[in-house]
Amino acid sequence: MKRDAVTGGGCLVSAAGVVGAVWLWGASDRTQRHLGNEFENNGQDFGAVLTELPFVFLAGAVLPAAVWGLGVWLLGRRRRSEPSADSQLHA
Predict the structure, then answer these.
(1) 38 torsion bin: left (phi>0), alpha (psi -120 to 50), beta (else)
(2) Rounded Cα distance, 4 and 88, in Å
(3) DSSP secondary-structure letter at 46?
(4) Any idea what DSSP says for residue 45?
(5) How far apart are the first and last CA of the chain?
(6) How far apart are CA 88 and CA 16, in angstroms?
(7) Which residues contact 35 (CB under 8 A, 6 or more apart)?
């Protein structure tokens, strides 16, 4: 794979991870409870948003990118260890 394709794919995976992580965090019952989705906003706590959302955002960005990078590294390593067709023809 070319380096531009690998970089672009990593960025797309990272962006999708951020969107998915934030969406799942926002849709969870625990978050809805903190945001005041109860009767007359009882239990509303925006401190949870300020402390949890940055970690959710970072985890959603870093984890998929790290898995993508590991996969690319392993595939590149495997390709280097396989003998190429040119070297087999000339041997």
Answers:
(1) beta
(2) 30
(3) T
(4) -
(5) 26
(6) 42
(7) 44, 46, 48, 49
Report the 10 Å Cβ neighbour count for 17. 21
Q: What is the tens place of the pLDDT at every residue in 1-27?
A: 577 777 888 889 999 999 999 999 989
The Cα-based distances of 26 to 22, 37, 74 in angstroms read 6, 12, 34
Say how far apart CA 14 and CA 29 lie, in whole Å: 25
SS3 10: helix
The answer, as to whether pTM is greater than 0.85, is: no
pLDDT of residue 76 exceeding 90, the answer is no
Cα dihedral sign, 50-53-59-64: negative
- What percentage of the chain carries pLDDT values higher than 70? 80
Q: From CA 59, how far away is CA 15, in angstroms rounded?
A: 11
Average pLDDT score, the chain: 81
Give the C-alpha separation, 22 to 31, whole Å. 11
